[in-house]
Write a structure and sequence with these properties.
heterodimer; A: 116 residues; mainly beta; six-stranded mixed β-sheet; four-stranded antiparallel β-sheet; B: 112 residues; seven-stranded mixed β-sheet; 11 strands; 0% helix
Chain lengths: 116, 112
């Protein structure tokens, strides 16, 4: 069975500082990895994904994530945090395409709090 | 473009009553999904549909049913609601098996 772990319930960072939100995964075969962001009382918004290719993936709003196969990690990063980045972040994984629907498994979420 | 719409936005329901949560997408996506979001548990898949006319069970399907009569609509029905079904429900869709899912704004359901 596939699984995702987001070890930090909350990450606090000062505006202008770099941020990292951690994610590790477990899946059989090559993973498809995703990051989503959720603002209060809103649905999830797609940030970025890793399917294949370069380990460093760039996404929306200046976010990027690095796929590390040996460590089974897909940490979300941003060089300079903004107060407006404060939100709930979800990592998700699915296994190789098997002809069925893209059933994602989500982590429990990490709340990012950026302060002035 | 509207993307995915869900109705109602919120609902308070008496235990034992039935209810259908509506979901409509205008992106002509083949696959659609229903999730519930509970504090500390993240999102859990209830049911999914690969394409119109087919449905499948997710991680937590008990107490819920779905239908997919056409590409655009994917309603979720609670036949006899129980308090443990109090949650925020999200509908999502994707155009292919490997691409990202797009989410609706959610329905907040309280079962008393």
């Amino acid at each position: 069975a596939q699984s995702v772990a987001q070890p930090e319930d909350q990450v606090n960072v000062a505006e202008g500082n770099p941020l990292t939100v951690k994610c590790t995964y477990s899946v059989s075969g090559n993973p498809y990895l995703f990051w989503y962001v959720q603002y209060p009382n809103r649905g999830l918004q797609f940030l970025l994904k890793y399917i294949t290719g370069d380990n460093l993936v760039k996404g929306s709003y200046g976010f990027e994530a690095e796929f590390n196969k040996s460590q089974t990690s897909f940490h979300l990063k941003k060089p300079s945090a903004l107060v407006s980045d404060s939100a709930l972040y979800f990592c998700a994984v699915r296994g190789p395409y098997t002809g069925t629907a893209s059933k994602l498994t989500f982590g429990t979420g990490t709340r990012l709090q950026v302060t002035l | 473009t509207a993307g995915i719409t869900q109705a109602p936005t919120s609902q308070i329901l008496a235990a034992g009553r039935s209810m259908t949560l509506r979901c409509t997408q205008d992106m002509r996506h083949n696959a659609m999904y229903w999730y519930r979001q509970d504090l500390g548990l993240g999102l859990r898949l209830i049911h999914y549909s690969n394409t119109a006319g087919t449905t499948g069970k997710g991680e937590v399907p008990d107490g819920y049913s779905v239908s997919r009569a056409n590409t655009d609509d994917f309603p979720l029905t609670l036949a006899s609601a129980v308090p443990s079904q109090t949650s925020v429900y999200f509908c999502a869709s994707s155009d292919s098996m490997v691409n990202e899912q797009f989410f609706g704004p959610g329905t907040r359901l309280t079962v008393l």
